[in-house]
Design brief:
Layout (H helix, E strand, L loop, with lengths): L4 H51 L5
Amino acid sequence: MRIGITEILVILVIVLVVFGGGKLAGVGKALGQSIRDFKKEVKADDEPAKKEEDKGGDAK
């Protein structure tokens, strides 16, 4: 089952009515900030592993 344009528009209208315009902007901003922070942390976790690979070192 696929969601069509009509269903998406109905969902967006309901969300707009429930949260209102001002709250919706704040929710979008918070969501965007959370995604940016998550990506930054994932990238930071990958960097130490790459540095160890570049050194060519097994700690054995």
